Automatic annotation (TrEMBL), chain A:
GO MF assignments: structural constituent of ribosome
Protein name: 28S ribosomal protein S22, mitochondrial
UniProt gene name: LOC115884096
Annotated keywords: Ribonucleoprotein, Ribosomal protein
GO cellular component, one term: mitochondrial small ribosomal subunit
Pfam families named among the record's database cross-references: MRP-S22 (PF10245)
UniProt KW Hydrolase keyword: no
Transmembrane segments annotated in the record for this chain: none
TrEMBL record, chain B:
Lineage: Eukaryota, Metazoa, Ecdysozoa, Arthropoda, Hexapoda
GO CC entries: mitochondrial inner membrane; mitochondrial small ribosomal subunit
SUPFAM superfamilies per the UniProt record, alphabetical: Ribosomal protein S16
Originating gene: LOC115884880
GO molecular function: structural constituent of ribosome
Protein name in the entry: Small ribosomal subunit protein bS16m
Single GO biological process annotation from the record: mitochondrial translation
Alphabetized UniProt keyword annotations: Mitochondrion, Ribonucleoprotein, Ribosomal protein
Length: 340, 138
């Protein structure tokens, strides 16, 4: 009799050692739901070109082999080409990359208030469940489709956007989109994925599952961007279509210090200048200075949240640049080349 | 034609052009699982005969969210109305609830009957509970 409780205790301690309980996500979702709409600014040509420059396209990463289970692997095809043919094929690859790297649109959260079409209290008691009527006329877009609901109390009203989405997916399914959002977007699973650095996978899946103006899409993407920004994992999204929206998110929320620090520490000062140009374009402010470094310095002085770290990084960059210059001079002198 | 398509075979043969046509439900489910196609057919034809055109679907069993789904091709329905088609009562009821036709009188009648039934049941329940209370007090 004495041994029984001991056995139970052992089981209990074993169970406790497993870390089944996940802590909930520390990031709060940030939506584009303020008064100002980010859409027109995002689609501005200058902003688009800056975002594309900041993406820093590496064609090896863009066209890397991805095991998605949709295509069979094929043997590589080697060809002899003239210079012209080579140029042409490179151009073709660039165009293909442009399509692959199209930035998911950044727009305001949608608000659709379903209008009531008629109220008929004499129909009360007829229905025990709602009836959803969908117009399946050929050639109508999903957004323009007529979808109405007859409620059990007899009111006829337009469907809200959640129902619209479900019905459109039922009658006109989109490839890869599920009727119910997958569990990977729930907090505990999402955090696990982010800890495993699967940011691109999360964002790709969210792009398929949701529309860009849905609050759920903006919740997931904003949490992913915040995680990347906090852990300095910018390399994960470079050369993917999501880097542009990440940068836009950070600039819109005035939180570009980590990215700026990363750019300066990796000696990408030109990109730092582009980032600051984007900041001044979106927030309608100007940072004076002629050279790139001066602009960065004036930004750190006036608008930065991490002044100390940024100033130190700029100092370090200046010293490295100086020593490089000296080394070059020395090498030139050794080769007998002197500047006039 | 051994297996005519569910979407319909169109107007075949000269006699169909002038034959009276009807928009009606066609049962397509299986045992214990009804599912209907909304079709145009020559009125009076047996349900096993090929239809002229399918205009929609009706799923009478409520789904997880307690909704019944109806899909209707309004463009084609308008076309057939222009050709002088008539409606069976269930389709006229559905189209009335959709707001496309005026609400069918049968809908109002059955709604009124259901409400009446509910009231009677409530009155009965009240009577029974009152009797129980009276018995308990005695």
């Amino acid at each position: 009799m004495c041994s029984l409780p001991l056995v139970f205790r052992n089981i209990n301690t074993k169970k406790l050692t497993h870390n089944y309980i996940y802590r909930s996500l520390v990031y709060s979702s940030i939506h584009y739901d303020g008064k100002s709409d980010p859409g027109p600014l995002f689609f501005n040509e200058e902003v688009q070109s800056l975002l594309k420059l900041l993406t820093r396209i590496d064609y090896n990463k863009v066209f890397r082999k991805r095991k998605l289970g949709t295509k069979l692997l094929t043997k590589p095809d080697y060809q002899f080409m003239t210079d012209e043919q080579l140029k042409e094929s490179i151009n073709r690859a660039r165009k293909k990359a442009d399509v692959l790297l199209q930035i998911p649109p950044v727009v305001k959260v949608k608000e659709i208030n379903p209008t009531i079409l008629s109220k008929d209290s004499a129909l009360k008691g007829l229905l025990t469940s709602k009836i959803v009527f969908t117009d399946i006329t050929f050639g109508v877009q999903n957004a323009d489709r007529i979808i109405v609901v007859r409620e059990t109390d007899g009111t006829l009203q337009e469907a809200d956007w959640q129902l619209r989405k479900r019905i459109n997916q039922t009658y006109f399914p989109e490839n890869g989109r599920l009727l119910k959002p997958p569990t990977m977007f729930q907090d505990t699973y999402l955090e696990n994925l982010l800890d495993r650095e699967e940011h691109e996978f999360v964002l790709d899946r969210a792009c398929i599952q949701f529309d860009p103006d849905e609050p759920e899409y903006q919740r997931i993407s904003s949490i992913t961007y915040q995680h990347i920004n906090e852990k300095n994992l910018f390399h994960l999204l470079r050369s993917t279509r999501h880097f542009g929206s990440l940068v836009f998110f950070l600039v819109w929320n005035k939180n570009i210090d980590n990215l700026l620090l990363d750019l300066i520490e990796t000696s990408n000062v030109n990109e730092a200048a582009q980032l600051i140009a984007l900041y001044s374009k979106i927030h309608n402010t100007e940072f004076d200075g002629d050279t790139v470094l001066e602009k960065v310095e004036s930004f750190t002085k006036s608008a930065s949240n991490k002044k100390g770290a940024l100033e130190l990084a700029i100092q370090a960059y200046k010293e490295v640049a100086k020593s490089k210059e000296q080394l070059e001079k020395g090498v030139n002198a050794a080769h007998g080349i002197t500047e006039c | 034609m051994l297996f005519p398509p569910a979407s319909g075979v169109g107007v075949t043969g000269g006699f169909i052009i002038k034959a009276p046509k009807v928009i009606r439900l066609l049962r397509k489910g299986c045992t214990n699982r009804p599912f209907y196609h909304i079709v145009v057919a020559v009125s009076g034809n047996h349900q096993s005969r090929p239809v002229i055109e399918q205009l929609g679907t009706y799923d009478p069993m409520p789904n997880e969210q307690n909704e019944r789904l109806v899909s209707l091709n309004f463009e084609r329905i308008s076309y057939w109305i222009g050709n002088g088609v008539t409606f069976s009562t269930p389709t006229a009821q559905l189209l009335g609830l959709a707001g496309y036709l005026p609400i069918h009188p049968t809908s109002y009648i059955s709604a009124w009957r259901n409400r009446q039934k509910l009231e009677e049941e409530k009155a009965k329940e009240l009577e029974i509970s009152e009797q129980k209370e009276a018995n308990a007090s005695q």
